[in-house]
Write a structure and sequence with these properties.
The chain is α+β, with helices and mostly antiparallel strands and 195 residues long. It has one domain: Aminopeptidase, CATH 3.40.630.30. The protein is 31% helix and 33% strand. The protein is built from six helices and eight strands. Strands 1-2-3-4-5-6-8-7 form an eight-stranded mixed beta sheet, with helices on both faces. Strand 3 and strand 4 form a beta hairpin. The chain is globular, with a radius of gyration of 17 Å.
């Protein structure tokens, strides 16, 4: 957490500040989610136009369970990426990444940057694997995760329903952190002949 706030520059020259969500940001987060058009909100799991749903998820900030990273343009939240994890149980070493970028700032690399930052945070934890779920027609999001090494685990046919009642395929992607470490070690050994 010491590395934040961090400034990033994207394609087109837009400069953003990345930092962890704090309690004073909650009202701005509500405004942010309400500013997302219905066609993009249909991909979200909860009705984010309702303040109580946002407070339920982010109101009691505990970075061991929910690690929310926001992107700011000036004082305006324009994206949020979150690493969720269970506190106990058989999935306690699995993290789930969710990223929501305002349509005005999509396809500029912000999703990739947030996902990368969350991945680097996951490396500092005891997580073994991280996953992401999205509808099959979210092609830009799928591409962003693939660029970071995520692989499709499966496609569940007609598994989710969008806000308009349409049944859609759900793509589950994952990245095994241990496997990634082994690949990095092999790469380093190959480059520097470490024995």
């Amino acid at each position: 957490m010491d590395e934040y706030p961090k400034e990033v520059t994207l394609k087109g020259g837009d400069r953003f500040v990345l930092r962890l969500l704090e309690e004073p940001d909650l009202e701005s987060l509500v405004e942010y989610f309400r500013s997302i058009p219905p066609e993009d909100r249909m991909y979200l799991r909860a009705d984010v136009t309702k303040r109580e749903n946002i407070m339920r998820r982010f109101g009691d900030i505990n970075h061991d369970k929910v690690y929310p990273l926001i992107a700011l343009l000036g004082d305006r939240i324009v994206a949020i990426g979150t690493l969720f994890r269970a506190e106990f149980g058989w999935m306690r070493n699995l993290g789930e990444i969710r990223v929501v970028v305002h349509p005005d700032f999509q396809r500029k690399g912000l999703c990739t940057i947030l996902t990368r930052e969350l991945f680097f945070h996951a490396l500092t934890t005891d997580l073994y694997k991280i996953q992401a779920e999205m509808m099959e027609n979210q092609v830009a999001a799928i591409n962003a995760f693939e660029r970071l090494g995520f692989k499709k685990e499966t496609v569940l046919r007609k598994h989710v329903t969008d806000l308009e009642g349409n049944r859609c395929n759900l793509v589950i992607m994952s990245l095994d952190i241990q496997d990634m470490w082994y690949l990095m070690e092999d790469f380093i050994k190959g480059q520097f002949y470490v024995t």
